[in-house]
């Protein structure tokens, strides 16, 4: 039996991340990077595909758990008839090798605790050779080596291709376990001191969260979302993954299972926007540098996503030995959407670069040159159909959102040139981009708007709706009080709404994405609805919806990609950057220093 997705908590070291269940089982971990093969893959299979559980012997889920305030350090506590015990889980920001630290502490009574470690490299398919060296245990298979040790050393034995430990703790006693990965051809790395690592991790995270500029209502939820977004950043390069998981389904038993462990330009730029708005300019600068490296070359070759170091080839294949979360097959590695044309990403990148400069990020000449190259590409391509932001695997269409974002790209450039005509050397003549901006605007209003229903539509000639149309007032394409905007918001609220939340697009037009089955409500779109309600003067409704969305977070404040009102379950990859971006941006819109309405 799989745990509900919302039963998991996240730990990570800014280079990879792990999911820990309420039962104390670490069921997902890729080493050494987010996009590496998993050594714990029970999340998509069963315990034989790899996991590491530490909990009181024969106990079920923990009694309570919480992150230490302002950190990614997780405490889980069990109250048993024999006493109370706490397990503290974290991954220290690494020097060289990745470590997972799990500290068991007795709080009351005398409790017997068991540890079961099943390492299964290459997504649960490879059982390593385990041996004992100098009081430590090392598992080796192919390129991977993992060391396990405890302080103090406890009774440990091998059984069933697994490593077991059992010990007792009384109040005040502690046992620390450390799991360390390194390439098998290299010497064992320096051993981390677990309690020193705990102190450093707490200090690092608390120092980072103290820089958050948001001080309005629901600050704890905003800070937790910002921590989650930071945890999805690959520190060595500044790349940001959409989620740390692959193939968690959008529909239980369905095939909408995708690998999100890569850097989408769209998700990354929106993550950047949330971080910059909260005061984190260092992350903005690191991401911009990642972007300039990743997209270097011919702008016509711009991809919608890259690997976390800027890799371009992300071939998609299936892993047949994993049955998938609750038998939702296939399990996919890689993502073929990398080859799609999604014109909206050009506008989102240019908009984010503009915002970053407005917030104080010093411009770089080659960033201006990149912006011009992107505009020149859009100037030629914006009239063409594309796959759109939802990555449909059906035919290309003239998606309205894609056209709107082409308008954004030209609009932001026009404003930059109007404010500083000296940029013409880098960006070109303002009249050129003003002409493009006006032409896009005119075509969208003529071909993407249904006057009879008073709403913009998903694509030219379509009667269907798309939640991305909620962004029209936010990006400034039309003012919030324009009757066409109000009509679009009302239509989406009415036709795409489900129990107060929002689907991405119309259910009866699901075939547009080329896939069978359906999906639940999309959390980012629901936050967009709250933003649109607020902008169109319905702030009370917006605040009520925001409160509903906050109530969907799990017990440690995390959100997946989607939510199914019928079952009350979170669905899709977890935790999802897009959802936490929405939470931060809506909080800032409703309660931040620039909030209006």
Draw up the topology in text:
Blueprint: E1 9-12, E2 17-20, E3 25-30, E4 38-40, E5 51-56, E6 64-67, E7 74-80, E8 83-90, E9 99-118, H1 121-124, E10 129-133, E11 136-141, E12 144-151, E13 156-159, E14 162-170, E15 174-183, H2 194-209, H3 219-231, E16 233-234, E17 239-240, E18 263-264, H4 265-277, H5 281-294, E19 305-306, E20 317-318, E21 332-333, H6 344-358, H7 365-381, H8 400-419, H9 424-427, H10 430-447, E22 449-450, E23 455-456, H11 483-495, E24 497-498, E25 501-502, E26 521-522, H12 523-535, H13 539-550, E27 562-564, E28 569-571, H14 577-591
Antiparallel strand pairs: 1-2, 2-3, 3-4, 3-5, 5-9, 6-7, 7-8, 8-9, 9-14, 9-15, 10-11, 11-12, 12-15, 13-14, 16-17, 18-19, 20-21, 22-23, 24-25, 26-27, 27-28
Helix pairs in contact: 3-14, 4-5, 4-6, 4-14, 6-8, 8-10, 12-13, 12-14, 13-14
């Amino acid at each position: 039996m799989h745990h509900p997705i919302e039963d998991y908590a996240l730990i990570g070291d800014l280079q990879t991340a792990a999911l820990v269940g309420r039962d104390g089982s670490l069921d997902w971990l890729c080493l050494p990077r987010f996009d590496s093969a998993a050594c714990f893959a029970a999340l998509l299979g069963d315990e034989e595909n790899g996991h590491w559980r530490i909990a009181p012997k024969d106990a079920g889920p923990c009694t309570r758990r919480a992150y230490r305030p302002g950190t990614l350090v997780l405490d889980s506590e069990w109250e048993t008839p024999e006493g109370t015990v706490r397990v503290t889980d974290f991954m220290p920001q690494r020097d060289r090798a990745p470590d997972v630290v799990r500290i068991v502490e007795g709080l009351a009574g005398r409790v017997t605790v068991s540890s079961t470690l099943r390492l299964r490299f290459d997504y649960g398919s490879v059982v390593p050779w385990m041996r004992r060296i100098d009081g430590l245990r090392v598992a080796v298979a192919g390129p991977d080596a993992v060391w396990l040790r405890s302080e103090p050393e406890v009774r440990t034995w091998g059984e069933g291709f697994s490593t077991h430990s059992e010990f007792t703790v009384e109040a005040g006693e502690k046992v620390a376990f450390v799991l360390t990965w390194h390439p098998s051809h290299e010497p064992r790395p320096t051993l981390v001191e677990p309690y020193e690592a705990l102190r450093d991790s707490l200090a690092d995270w608390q120092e980072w969260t103290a820089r958050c500029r948001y001080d309005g209502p629901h600050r704890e939820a905003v800070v937790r979302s910002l921590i989650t977004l930071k945890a999805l950043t690959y520190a060595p390069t500044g790349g940001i993954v959409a989620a740390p998981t692959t193939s968690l389904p959008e529909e239980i038993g369905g095939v909408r299972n995708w690998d999100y462990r890569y850097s989408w330009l769209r998700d990354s730029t929106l993550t950047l926007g949330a971080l910059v708005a909260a005061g984190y300019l260092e992350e903005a600068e690191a991401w911009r540098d990642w972007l300039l490296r990743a997209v270097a070359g011919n702008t016509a070759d711009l991809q919608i996503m890259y690997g976390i170091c800027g890799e371009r080839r992300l071939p998609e294949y299936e892993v047949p030995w994993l049955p998938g979360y609750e038998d939702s097959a296939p399990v996919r590695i890689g993502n073929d959407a990398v080859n799609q044309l999604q014109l909206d990403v050009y506008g989102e990148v240019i908009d984010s670069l503009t915002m970053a400069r407005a917030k104080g990020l010093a411009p770089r000449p080659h960033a201006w040159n990149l912006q011009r190259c992107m505009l020149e590409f859009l100037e030629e391509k914006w009239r063409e159909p594309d796959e759109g932001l939802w990555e449909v695997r059906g035919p290309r269409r003239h998606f309205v959102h894609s056209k709107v974002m082409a308008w954004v790209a030209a609009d932001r450039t026009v404003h930059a040139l109007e404010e500083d005509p000296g940029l013409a050397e880098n960006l070109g003549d303002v009249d050129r981009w003003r002409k493009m901006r006006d032409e896009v605007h005119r075509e969208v209003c003529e071909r993407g708007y249904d006057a009879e229903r008073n709403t913009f539509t998903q694509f030219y000639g379509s009667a269907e709706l798309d939640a991305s149309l909620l962004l029209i007032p936010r990006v400034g394409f039309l003012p919030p009080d324009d009757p066409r905007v109000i009509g679009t918001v009302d239509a989406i609220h009415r036709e795409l709404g489900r129990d107060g939340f929002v689907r991405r697009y119309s259910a009866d037009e699901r075939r547009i994405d080329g896939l069978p089955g359906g999906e639940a409500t999309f959390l980012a779109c629901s936050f967009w609805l709250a933003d649109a309600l607020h902008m169109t003067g319905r702030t009370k409704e917006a605040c009520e919806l925001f409160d509903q969305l906050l109530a969907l977070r799990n017990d440690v404040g995390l959100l997946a990609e989607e939510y199914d009102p019928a079952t009350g379950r979170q669905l899709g990859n977890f935790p999802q950057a897009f959802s936490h971006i929405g939470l931060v941006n809506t909080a800032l819109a409703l309660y931040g220093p620039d909030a209006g309405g």
